[in-house]
Amino acid sequence: METVRHKQGSPYTAISQKLIDAVKDYPGFGKMFLFWTAIGVLSHLRYYVMFPSMPELRGISAVIGCVACFYPWIALTPVVFYLEKRFPLAAGRWVRNLVLLAAISVPFSLIASPLMVGTPLLVASAFRLPTLLPPDRILWFRELLVAETIFWCSVAAGYFFRTLLLLREQERKAAQLALEKAQLEAGLNQAQLEVLRARLNPHFLFNSLQNISVLTKQDPNTASRMLTRLGDLLRAVLRHDSQPESTLREELSLTQAYVALEQMRFGDRLHVNFDIAQESQEAMVPCFLLQPLIENAIIHGLRGARQTGIITVSAVTQGSELVLTVTDNGIGLPAEGAEMKIGVGLRSTRERLERMYPDRHTFFIRKPAEGGAEIRIQIPLRSADLEDAVNHNGQPALVGR
Q1: For the chain, how many structural domains are there in total?
Q2: Plot region of 5 (φ>0 → left; ψ -120 to 50 → alpha; else → beta)
Q3: Rounded-to-integer distance, Cα 27 and Cα 16, Å
Q4: What is the pLDDT of residue 3?
Q5: Residue 199 domain-assigned (yes or no)
Q6: 295 and 347 Cβ atoms separated by less than 8 Å
């Protein structure tokens, strides 16, 4: 029987990987190399200014020696970053962690000091360069204070980088939460719109079927033609039901089909005029927007009126706005002070506009000077062509905004 043995990595490999993972977001090797090189050059300049008469400080070998003195910290600084992260000074147990770091700093500096002294000697020996001091006069423990100072400066730098990373992570999480909240609100808003439309479509269907039911006894032929036209209209409505918006041209096509249905019932007693500006044909509007307004004008405005009912539907652009109006010559609005009842169609339309264009639309009903009633809707002007661009680049396509 063959035994399968799993190769296990050495403890040193595991520790190294843990260290790399802990400081992977901190400055990398390249930045550390440049930083400690700059520190070494500045250190040489300091000695050169303080002791300008010393010949040992002149020449490229003196610069290389000073720079090489700090190169061990390219490897040691990430270790200090890990220690500061392991024992953070900003945590609730910062006093304990400070004592632990102070205890660690002593052996750490005892290791760093001979490295700081030995590295320049190795570099000088490898490139056959003169050293600043003869080997017999170099005492590694003189660098203990320097190593200790660098250790605590590295601790401070680690605290700074760790705090910066925490702030960035908090900003990322806040942005993610804001995005998720916006997506949830958009989903909820869409669901509420679908509920409103689900309420609106049966309302239109029931009213139409009721009218057809009345005509089945009075005028069976007209009722049959109305039923056929209603079927065609419902297919068109359901075909557009998945989209919250359509072009005004498409909306007018549905509206005219509904008007044709009503004119079968009213005959010459109903005239509907469409005054649509050419530039507004491709403007985006909520699907099934105009039908409830015309239905309201027929049911509430023309009911009881003796003259021929005239309804005018108009659409114009005003700057960055699309203005839609539906005017009738019916009985008009209730007297001042009387309660005005708003039906399902108008109420659903108003709620849909509030959901789709919050704070960017107007909806009001007024009584014109010549009588009757006028419903006026004003929404942001957005063209179908620009809307296609939105779908490609994800940017809003508001004209003039």
Answers
A1: 2
A2: beta
A3: 17
A4: 46
A5: no
A6: no
